[in-house]
Every structure is written in structure tokens, then in C-alpha cells.
Amino acid sequence: MNDVLATERLVLRPVRPGDLAELRAHWTAPDVRRFLFDGAVLSSEEIVEIIKSSEQDFATSGYGLWTVRQREGTELVGTAGLRQLEELGLEVVYSLAPTAWGHGYATEAARAVVDHALTTLGLPEVLAEVDEGNTASVAVVERLGMTPFETVEGLLGPMVRYRRTG
């Protein structure tokens, strides 16, 4: 199975060990981590574990975490992927560099991941969990056709769970 996803403007490739420095710089940027990892600053060791877990998920299940880059560039624009949300199923996750905000890249990358999950992987649904104050991510999941179904308490406050069925 080809794990590379492509859209009109973006290429999504599975994360790999060589991405460690870029991922660390991206995920530790204050504006990126504000709603990601509950605001925690990840260590290099934690990022290595995320990469290893993603590689294992791709090997066994055909999903994981992708780097997001413009088709015509090499710079990391962000990340997107699928991960387990408790016992409920897989959730779409994404992060975007502040320099890439406002161009629709988060929606484009997340749509590629959701489409992969619902078509290629044949999942019955994809979930998302968004911090209540994260208006940009609420807009993304709504553009993806996801609908809210539950509000739960998170470490930083209420989180709204969304779903989209195939």
C-alpha cells in the first residue's frame, strides 16, 4: 500500500526518524502547541516514540502520522494523521505552522486523511476532538462535514467530539 497522500497543493508522507528535528521545532512552537499535546513541550525522546508508534501503525494498519509539505516546496507546513481516541475509534489530528495559516492547508490535509480512512481503510467513521476555544479547528472539522456528538472535560477545559461517517 502506498502511504503517501497527495492533494492539489500538498504532499503528505509518513513521518520517519529523519523528521525528528523538524517535528521538534514545529511541535514546540508556542502557537502550534497551544491546542496540541495539551500545551506540553515534547522532549526529543517523546517525539521519537511518536514516530516509532506511527511507523508501527502504518506497518500494521495503514495509518499513522504524516508530514505535510507543499507540492512545490520542501519546508514542513505541518502534520496530519490518525490516532486512536480512547476506545471510540480513530480521530483525525493536524497541526499547521503559523506561516501556513489562512491558506486552507489544514482542511486540505485533514480531508486527505479522512478520505483515506473512509475509503482506502474502509472505516465506518472518523472522529475529531477539539478544544472548545479552538475556533480555527472547529471551522476545519465543520468543513470536513463532521458533526458534534459529545462534550467531554479535557486537561485544559471542555473538548467537543465530532464524527463523520462513511
UniProtKB/TrEMBL annotation:
<keyword id="KW-0808">Transferase</keyword>
<dbReference type="InterPro" id="IPR000182">
    <property type="entry name" value="GNAT_dom"/>
</dbReference>
<keyword id="KW-0012">Acyltransferase</keyword>
<dbReference type="InterPro" id="IPR016181">
    <property type="entry name" value="Acyl_CoA_acyltransferase"/>
</dbReference>
<dbReference type="GO" id="GO:0016746">
    <property type="term" value="F:acyltransferase activity"/>
</dbReference>
<feature type="domain" description="N-acetyltransferase">
    <location>
        <begin position="10"/>
        <end position="166"/>
    </location>
</feature>
<dbReference type="InterPro" id="IPR051531">
    <property type="entry name" value="N-acetyltransferase"/>
</dbReference>
<protein>
    <submittedName>
        <fullName>GNAT family N-acetyltransferase</fullName>
        <ecNumber>2.3.-.-</ecNumber>
    </submittedName>
</protein>
<dbReference type="Pfam" id="PF13302">
    <property type="entry name" value="Acetyltransf_3"/>
</dbReference>
